[in-house]
Amino acid sequence: MFLAATIALAVIGSKATLPTQDFTNESKPAFDKRMSWFREARFGMFIHWGLYSVPAGTWNGKDYGGASEWLMNSARVPVADYEPLREKFNPVNFDAKKWVAIAKGAGMKYIVITSKHHEGFAMWPSKIGDWNIGNTQFQRDPLKELSVECKKAGIKLCFYHSIMDWHHPDFIPREDYDKRPVDKVNFENYVGVLKGQLKELLTEYGPLGLLWFDGEWKGWNHTRGVDLYNYVRGFQPNLIVNNRIDVGRGGMAGMTTEGHVGDYGTPEQEIPATGIATDWESCMTMNGSWGFHANDNNWKSADTLIYNLVDCASKGGNYLLNVGPTSLGEIPSPSVDRLALVGDWLSKNGEAVYKTSASPFPRQLSWGKVTRKGNSLYLVNFDLSKQTLDLPGLKTAIKSVKVIGGAGSVSARPIDGGWTVSLDRMPKTLGPRVVKVELAGKPVVEATLPTQSKDGSITLGAEIATIEGSTAQLEGGDKQAIGFWSNPKDTVSWDFSVSKPGTYNMTLEYACEPAAAGSSFQVKVGNQMVKADVSSTGSWSTFKPLSLGQFSFPTTGKTRITISPVKIVGQGMMNLRKLRIS
User: Fold this and answer.
1) 303 pLDDT band (50/70/90 cuts)?
2) Which residue among 261, 277, 304, 473 is least crowded, i.e. fewest CB within 10 A of its CB?
3) What is the tens place of the pLDDT at every residue in 74-121?
């Protein structure tokens, strides 16, 4: 498929143009300037589009759940059997102007599209080899057409590019189902093709916002990562490059370990539990697949998408939300409909998202999220049953408060240990309400503990828990629960202030699928300890209460409640949403 002469030319070409400048010792002012647009954008569109959109999750009549862009791997399809998809791919309904309009209407500031995914197929008419869109019936360049429309719309165009390549004969290590001979494999030939095609993308499509690498976990190393980082920035010095160009990414949590290159972290399908000081971006799907999957209709609600966006912004990160176009070149209507609703909310409340930084509050607040812009705070109220928004520990005086994106009357007053904002006359809204708080100066917030209400009750949500261990983590969106709890050494705890000593009932709210039922855990408060069993609630998203009995809190002051596994069955112990004392 790739002629030896072509490969040789690619290698020679890439070496001849190999930039020698070292970009890894950039000054902080230069780095901050380069990252400025990314930090202001907060919201981008991810597009996974390739030959995998033709089978759309099904191979030889069998449906393969999960990520359809991995179908070649999950269905264990040999290269020779996969190649005929090229002849079937003909996205006659592709309209770059329409795609960009959908992104712009949703309030997205940049687009990241797959120039090449793991299947190795180039989504532009590359001059290197023939495994590309230029050799399909389509014979157009969708990336070029997108670059034109993005420029018109003021949206930054970016490319996702896979380092791993299941198709190229010189990429190793191979998948175990790939039985092609390896005796003449030369990985350096593949690196030459990789660089040669990247050179095309970096020199023929105008200034790019960023390059989003992936597939670094096979056949790659730190030395190659540094080399490629300097190589791509040599063509466009202002280019932003994600951390998957190197091998320092910490799993799906996505953050980089020290000593590796890459400009920002890439959490995948999750949002960090707390704010992170470095730059990051959570990439997430709207259903269960990145590429188009004809049988996946498990769509997230628009409310969940808005929550995830604000959650990312409140923690100082970006939200890269995916769409998977069909083989005809159309973005599925459920995606379009949801993006329109997100865009409608942002058109009124975008001030609370764009150009903002992380919340100054050290713990999550029960009523919603906070973003910051200078001396202004934006209170994004997701719990519409709340009539007051407490700001515990806020020491800076409030100058003024006003409603953003709608009508309503609000007021603010100091309370013991902070401030509270009263939603005096707030009409019902579609989506969360936003209140802008102008402070008298830089926000100063002292750490405080959750405290019992007047009747002694208190609800401790997953979002304010302390998670210790290697697997358990906070899941955002509709769940708002601690999940992926598969390590029996992981613990979850809450610290709170007892203001009304006494004996109280304790109830836990959790979810567990049938296959994981039978786990057990213990709850510890001081010298008191109770063991409980985990029963099925029907699914990981069906939450039910579990009574833990009575616990005594004899004295005022700081108290800790700790939950630790005794036995874990299946994929995880449970999804833990909240603990209530009443």
Assistant:
1) very high
2) 277
3) 999 999 999 999 999 999 999 999 999 999 999 999 999 999 999 999
DSSP category for residue 451: B
Q: Which fold has domain 4-16+29-349?
A: TIM Barrel (3.20.20)
CA–CA separation, 44 and 47 (whole Å): 10
Question: Which pTM does this prediction carry?
Answer: 0.88
3-state SS, 243-286, equals HHHCCCECHHHCCECCCCCCCCECCECCCCCCCCCCCEEEEECC
Architecture of domain 458-581: Sandwich (2.60)
The answer to whether 371 and 356 have CB atoms below 8 angstroms apart is: yes
Instruction: Give the chain's length.
Output: 582
Domain 368-439 of CATH type 3.30.1520: no
Strand pairing report for 376-381 and 368-373: antiparallel
Percentage of the residues of the chain whose pLDDT score is greater than 90: 83
Pairing status of strand 318-323 against strand 43-47: parallel
CA distance 147 to 267: 26
Q: pLDDT at position 565, please? A: 96
Contact (CB, 8 A) for 383 and 399? no
| Alpha carbon distance 358, 311 (integer Å) | 10
Q: What angle do CA 489, 260, 205 make, to 5 degrees?
A: 120
Tell me the average pLDDT of the chain.
Answer: 93
Per-residue pLDDT, 51: 98
Q: What is the separation, in whole angstroms, between the first and last Cα of the chain? A: 69
